[in-house]
Amino acid sequence: MTSSAAHNPPAQLDVLHRGHWFAALPDDARQALLAVARTQSLAPAQRLFSRGDANDGLYAVLQGAVRVGAVAPSGREALLGVIVPGQWFGEIATLDGGLRTHDAVAQGQTKLLHVPLERLLAVLEAHPTLWRYLGQLVAEKLRAVFSGMEDLVLLPAPARVARRLLAMAQGHGMWQADAAVQTVQVQQDQLGAMLALTRQTVSEVLGDFEARGWLKRRRGCIDLLDPAALAQHADRAG
Question: Residue limits of the Cyclic nucleotide-binding domain (predicted)?
Answer without folding.
Answer: 21-141
